Amino acid sequence: MLFPTSLVGSYPQPDWLIDRDRLAGRFPPRVRARELWRVDPAYLEQAQDDATMLAIRAQEEAGLDILTDGEARRESYSNRFATALDGVDIDNPGTALDRSGHPNPVPRVTGPIRRRHPVEVDDVRFLRANTSRTIKITVPGPFTMSQQAQDDHYGNPESVALGYAEAVAEEVSDLFAAGADIVQLDEPYLQARPEPAKQYGVKVINRALEGATGTTAVHLCFGYAAIIHDRPAGYSFLPELSACACDQISIETAQSGLDCAVLATLEGKTIILGVLDPTDLAVESAETVIARVRRALPYVQPRRLVLAPDCGMKYLPRDVAFGKLAAMTAAADRLRAEVDLGPAGGPGITAPVPHRCCSKDIGAASMPFPAGAAAAVLARRLIRAGHRREH
Q1: Domain of residue 307, CATH code
Q2: Does residue 382 form part of some domain?
Q3: Which domain holds residue 118?
Q4: Crossing angle between the packed helical segments 286-296 and 318-341, to the nearest 10 degrees
């Protein structure tokens, strides 16, 4: 399939599960932040399962091709895994500067970093049991975790990162064994700390992916838009990932207006292209998303593109996040039709859109795909209804 669609990782958690005001009013936690949960600890796991089901169904309803668990069980993208390891003290945390330059409590490395037990395997099993679509799970990357820790043991930053890489490698292996189709390492600090990243970032990521038996991805971005407001015009670390062992590279382009010429340096990699702007609470039109995709097409073949938001959607209102995903999938449908038609079916030309589940074409005259996200969702519902009647 051309232009498959996916989340980067997170989807907004329900207000009944987590205190979203408190979440938005602080830096992403590096140590545990149990005070964010609204549910009694005795019922928290059940509530997180329910929230995960909502995230799965929302993604399916929006039409995504690749699903995540929405990271509903996490306080931040990284702390659930980073605080579950041996060799780190989270009861007596250290301090490290966040990418914003502010000090933040972080795990304190006091001994050899070891994975105590699988951390996200049950998350993958739950996701696999509840959807038939392609699934992806995210894990914080070793370089980023090393930058979000205070080292009181190794005495060498690269050694800390390699310690984390060993733990991540074990987790990646178990995640694929549990049914993950794609495992993504979240590595935003490659962009935030380019000098050490250029020294050993690719080395430690390659160690973490060594022996991986499925599709692997690396995500790097400019930070959560709700926390980091200034977006540079380009990446300080990106072409270097051409030497990375991963199959896919996830980047943001919507917020920054990235010059996509840099993508030509990543020949052979599938690009998870950020085409939704999480700083804007207005839902994009399909035309806006298509224009963002077209910026990349001179440098990346369509078969090497996956469409996604710029970053996690954790901080967005749920209705806004859903609308944006629906607009993205509507855009993907139109792009597939245009590519299938070749140059004659250029921008703005309406064409029959193949049904996802069968070979019958849905004619444009009977089923247009309007720009608005709500209209896109309605179109999908009508298609499914017609499909059920025919089958």
Answers
A1: 3.20.20.210
A2: no
A3: 20-352
A4: 60
Q: Which of 104-108, 163-167, 268-272, 382-386 has the weakest average pLDDT?
A: 382-386
Lowest mean pLDDT among 67-81, 215-229, 364-378: 364-378
Tokens of 149: 């820790």
pLDDT tens digit sequence for 98-154: 877 788 899 999 999 999 999 999 999 999 999 999 999 999 999 999 999 999 999
Distance CA 62, CA 326 (A): 5
**Burial group, residue 303, by CB count within 10 angstroms (0-12, 13-18, 19+):** exposed
> What's the number of domains the chain is made of?
1
359 assigned to some structural domain: no
C-alpha distances in angstroms, 37 versus 19, 332, 366?
6, 36, 47
Q: What DSSP string describes 152-164?
A: SSSSSHHHHHHHH
114 vs 298: CA distance, rounded Å: 44
Is 122 part of a structural domain of the chain? yes
Question: Does the residue 386 lie in any domain?
Answer: no
Average pLDDT (34-40) is 95
Residue recorded with tokens 């998350």: 123
- The span from the CA of 271 to the CA of 250, in Å, is 6
